[in-house]
Amino acid sequence: MHQTNSSKGNEFSGEIAMIVAADENNAIGKKGNLLCHLPNDLKHFKQITEHHTVVMGRKTFESLPKGALPNRKNIVMTSQKDAKFNDCIVCHSLDEVWKHCENEDKVFFIGGEQIYKLIIDKADTLHLTRIHHAFPDADTFFPAIDPNEWTLVEEKQQDADDRHPFDYTFFTYIRKKQTK
Predict the structure, then answer these.
(1) DSSP 8-state code for residue 7
(2) Could you read off the pLDDT of 100-139 as tens digits, one per residue?
(3) Considering only CA atoms, which of 136, 112, 5 is closest in space to residue 54?
(4) How many CA atoms, within 13 angstroms, populate the side-chain half-sphere of residue 6?
(5) Which burial class, exposed, middle or buried, applies to 28 when counting CB atoms under 10 A from its CB (0-12, 13-18, 19+)?
(6) What pLDDT digit, counting tens, does each position of 19-67 carry?
(7) Domains of the chain as residue ranges with CATH
(8) Within 10 A of 73 (CB to CB), how many other CB atoms are there?
(9) Which of the chain's ends, N or C, has fewer CB atoms near its CB within 10 Å?
C-alpha cells in the first residue's frame, strides 16, 4: 500500500509513518506538554506503534512521563553530541536513524515539531488525531499538509465525554503515488 522510499533519497525501504494529535490550528503542544489528555488517543497511539520503532526528538522524549516507551525500539534524534537516554538509541541525523532501522518494515515518527518538519516530505502514512478545539496558548505546531498529496483512507469520529473534554477524529492518510 505504500511506496518505497529509496526514491526519496534515503536508505530506508519500509513504511515511514507519522502519528500526531493536533488541534484545529495544527497545534500539538504547549510548554513541553500535550494540549490535553485524551485517554482514547493514548490507547490508539499505543495500539498503532507497539512493536515498532518510534523516532522522536529530545524534547518529546523528555516529555514522556515514564521515559522510553515500552514494547518499542525508541530512537531519540538530537543535536547534543554526548546525549544519552535510558533504553534509547541516540541518533544525530536521519542517515543514522535509517542505519538502525534496516530490518524494520515500518518506522513511526512521533514528534515534536522539528522532527515532523524533517520527515513530512518523506512520510508514506499519517495517523492524525484532530482535536476539534483551538488552543490559543499552544506553542508547538505540526506542519501544514498539502491535501493534494494525501488520500484519506480511514476516519473515525469520537464525541467528548466525561474522560475526553473535546470531540476528536482519528484520520489515516496515505501519500498519493507520484506519477512520472
Answers:
(1) G
(2) 999 999 999 999 999 999 999 999 999 999 999 999 999 9
(3) 112
(4) 3
(5) buried
(6) 999 999 999 999 999 999 999 999 999 999 999 999 999 999 999 999 9
(7) 17-175 (3.40.430.10)
(8) 18
(9) C
Q: Where are the beta strands (DSSP E) in the chain?
A: 15-22, 27-30, 33-34, 53-57, 73-77, 89-91, 106-109, 125-131, 140-141, 150-158, 168-175
- Average pLDDT in the chain: 92
CA distance 35 to 21: 9
Q: Are 151 and 126 in contact (CB under 8 A)?
A: no
Q: Which three cell numbers stand for residue 92?
A: 544525530
Confidence band for 7, pLDDT divided at 50, 70 and 90: very low
Which cell numbers hold the place of 112?
515534536
More confident residue, 11 or 77: 77
Which amino acid makes up residue 34? L
Give the torsion through C-alpha atoms of 93, 98, 99, 101, to 10 deg.
130
Q: What angle do CA 72, 122, 135 make, to 5 degrees?
A: 75
- In this structure, the number of other CB atoms found within 10 A of the CB of residue 33 comes to 11
Q: Which three cell numbers stand for residue 124?
A: 508514506
Residue with cell 499505543: 46
Copy the grid coordinates of residue 148.
493534494
